[in-house]
Design a protein that fits this description.
CATH superfamily of the largest domain: Aldolase class I
CATH class of the largest domain: Alpha Beta
Shape: globular
Helix content: 25-40%
Number of helices: 12
CATH topology of the largest domain: TIM Barrel
Number of strands: 12
Strand order of the largest sheet: 1-2-3-4-7-8-9-10-11-12
Order of helices and strands: HHHEEEEEHEHEHEHEHHEHEHEH
Largest sheet: 10 strands, mixed
Structural class: alpha/beta
């Protein structure tokens, strides 16, 4: 809950409105997990809160560590589902990849989460629990995490109310008072949600692209039928045109999983330059991590480097994303809790 919501809540219990601010401080700054820890709130009021409310904090049910230091956690949601969360350490950075849905509706061919199907939206509390619980595992007081990406299970624009609520709490003075530059939200391109996100948020945006050719992108990503990449680029020109300037100074990036001989040809490179040249953006090349029953061909390092060099030389700033946590099924496209749904 936001401070305003907490103040309205405590008023229904006959408490002064300032108690709502006290609760917010304990929840988001002190990161407590019980009402008993809220020591500047009276015993009577703590009793009322404990009788009628829950905090929503829970520890992960599983925790795995990769040989490269990446950690994967499984959390049970308040509705009883399960999601996976990944923490990626990198020198002085610690990035948390959070989930926003149990499974996903989008069913992208190359993604293990899509094979799980859709089993429900997360509440803002479920999203924040991933963040505060992982942070608490590494820092008893204060902040360990430096960045958050909404790139785990689910499509953020398909659960935008909860996503924005969780972001607003992280950015608020009563929360972590983070800069929006520390948060990135991804989407396969649900235009209505994307438009609302860009109007209401100052955080970065990442678009799952994977092919600049609409017919081929449709084969990889069924969402292309309803939310075409050409339409998306036209929408994005209003916010990230090279000829304009986004006063919010947020970053636009495109995610591109590379498949050998399929979307890495000279035609694809030329189409990428044509499609993205009007935008002030960057492109991230991603190695494909094999999933069961999908026979797409992975690429090699030399191809990724060739693509990076060509695109960068033609004005599209391009990077190769490091693959992390593959040995614990924590790399891009590998998250799934299907086995939990079937238990």
């Amino acid at each position: 809950m936001s401070v305003d919501e907490l103040q309205r809540l405590v008023a229904t219990f006959g408490m002064p409105r300032f108690v709502g601010k006290q609760i917010a401080k304990w929840l988001y700054q002190k990161q407590v997990s019980s009402f008993d820890e809220m020591t500047d709130i009276s015993l009577r009021n703590r009793g009322l809160l404990g009788e009628h409310c829950i905090i929503g904090r829970s520890a992960p049910t599983e925790r795995l560590t990769s040989v490269d230091g990446t950690e994967k956690y499984m959390f049970q949601t308040l509705a009883g589902g399960y999601v996976e969360t990944v923490m990626i350490p990198d020198h002085e950075r610690a990035t948390l990849c959070v989930s926003c849905q149990v499974g996903c509706k989008m069913n992208c061919v190359f993604c293990q989460t899509g094979k799980q199907g859709f089993h429900g939206n997360l509440l803002a509390a479920d999203i924040l629990n991933q963040i505060f619980s992982v942070n608490g595992l590494h820092a008893s007081n204060g902040e360990f995490l430096t960045n958050i990406v909404y790139m785990g299970q689910g499509e953020p624009m398909d659960n935008l109310d909860a996503v924005l609520q969780s972001i607003n709490i992280l950015l608020a003075d009563y929360g972590w008072a983070w800069s929006p530059k520390r948060i990135t939200v991804s989407t396969c391109g649900l235009c209505s949600g994307m438009r609302r996100y860009l109007e209401e948020s100052q955080c970065h945006l990442a678009i799952s692209l994977h092919s600049p050719i609409p017919e081929q992108r449709l084969q990889l990503m069924p969402s292309e039928k309803a939310y075409g990449i050409e339409q998306m680029v036209q929408e994005l020109k209003h916010y990230f045109s090279r000829n304009g300037r986004d006063v919010r100074q947020r970053r636009l990036s495109f995610e591109y999983t590379v498949f050998s001989g399929l979307n890495d040809t000279s035609l694809h490179l030329k189409e990428l330059v044509r499609l993205l040249s009007p935008l002030d953006c960057r492109l991230n090349l991603i190695r494909w991590h094999k999933i069961p029953d999908v026979s797409l061909p992975p690429t090699d390092e030399s191809c990724l480097e060739m693509m990076r060099d060509y695109l960068t030389s033609h004005g599209i700033f391009t990077t190769i994303r490091a693959s992390r946590g593959e040995d614990i099924m924590a790399a891009c496209g590998l998250l799934s809790t299907l086995h939990k749904s079937n238990e």
